[in-house]
Amino acid sequence: MTYVSNDPADFAEDALAGFCDLHADTVRQVPGGAVRRARPARPKVAVLPGGGSGHYPAFYGIIGPGFADGAVSGNLFTSPSAQDACSVALAAHSGAGVVFTYGNYAGDVMNFGLATERLRARGIEAENVIVTDDIASARTTAERRGIAGDFTVFKVMGAAAEEGMDLGEVVRVGRKANDVTRTIGTAFAGCTFPGAASPLFTVPDGQMGLGLGIHGEPGLRDVPKPSARALGQDFVARLLAEKPDGAGDRVAVLLNGLGSVKHEELFVLWTDVARLLRESGHTLVLPEVGELVTSLDMAGVSLTVTWLDDELERLWTAPAWTPAFRRGSITAADTGAGTEELAETETAGFAEASAESRRLAESVLSGLRVVRKALHEAEAELGEIDAVAGDGDHGRGMVRGIDAAVAGAETACEAGAGAGDCLAAAGDEWAARAGGTSGVLWGAGLRAAGEVIGAESGTIDAFAAVTAFADRIISLGGAEPGDKTLVDALVPFRERLAAGSWSSAAETAEQAARRTADLVPRKGRARPLAERSVGTPDPGAVSLALIARAIGEFSRGERA
């Protein structure tokens, strides 16, 4: 349970603001996250971890010399937007390039990827290092999630940048560390969002959820809760079975509490973990026990092992000084205040619009307000659907997105924008403020639809706009029908619209969304919990169908 908050929807922003005020001597808040207050004396690679909030001290708690240069911070368990990532990167960049590093989640991959493209277009070198340490989430490394192994990979990269390695070398050692990092975790109870009356998931009495995620996802399967000794044996056995080929016998080890398992309990578990690793012939190098990558108040633990060579050991043991993690001889004096350079901002103009298109823009705005009402009413239901095999944030994310979209459309209308620019502005704000997979997809889709509508016409070719919307979402997300995503409702909707009315297409989308309950997910966060999701429709497909129906009802009302 989260006990202290104001507006629960603003919890992540409020927490970041409080953190930056408390540590104002070493960090400063910028749009989208935080960066070191002191800029480096010479150009150095900016190492920028990022992801959703709710994981403190990851990610902004590790900003400081020897570790991160900044952190991109999204809403709770929701990837930050590409705009947020660019903002933090521009504030942290000192002339040697930037590297984003984050866990392997679809929303993070898309948003940081888009940010990388935008930075490169501005002449800034930018790269990505994706963490894939969770052995429970998939068989192949490339498909695995990033969980507490983030911490080790980020630390190695931060030390490499502090040594003066160039961008290519920092990326190389980060990927090298990821390749030899393995994590297994378990949950005893789910976490609860601020303002929520119940946790995202529950674990039966006497059971634990083996293979948890750090975004509030339940374990892959429930098993009887063992003693600490038996749990340590299970964890160590699973990780040793994943030892990389050719790895040595020196290891960095993290025993991580997810939020409600406290230090004394971790110490009990550590006794057996450490003994078993030593008995297996391994030497433990500066192990860490505590809360390193949390999941709000989740009751859970994870064990991470990184096999070290001489280079990785040097970087792992190098000094660091951050608000949440300190090692070696770096002191607060080394972080003295430097020049505060604000991230550059860009102002978007609108094409000159015809009077007919400006009137149509007002209609577009009215339609978005109708969608806003429908999504607010469905927020809890969408969250419950998502919590079955995901992190339960879909309803909140959609509400944040549509609220931002309406605000963006209002600004555009006030500036005299035409219908196309109005819808494109709504999409840009949706992507910027909602974050996550749905945020980037809906934002990009609405912009594509707006570009088709343009600034001159007083009417909308619905099929052309929907086609542009769908094409952009499918190309960006890479999903296909059958993957159990919003595409499973979007494609039938578009096909029916080509031959029928909007109302009939919306009904088709609703039917298709319901049928996703029979599918096994092949994309997104629900994929590791594929079997658990069977019997529950995809939340993205459900929300798309809901929006299609709301727009149809609005259109009929306008014509009446």
TrEMBL record:
This is Dihydroxyacetone kinase family protein. The lineage of its organism: Bacteria, Bacillati, Actinomycetota, Actinomycetes, Pseudonocardiales. Residues 513-535 are annotated as: Disordered. NCBIfam families: PRK14479.1. GO terms for molecular function: kinase activity. Keywords: ATP-binding, Kinase, Nucleotide-binding, Transferase. PROSITE patterns: DHAK, DHAL. InterPro entries: DhaK_dom (IPR004006), DhaL_dom (IPR004007), DhaL_dom_sf (IPR036117), Dihydroxyacetone_Kinase (IPR050861). Residues 7-325 form the DhaK domain. Residues 362-553 form the DhaL domain. SMART domains: Dak2 (SM01120).
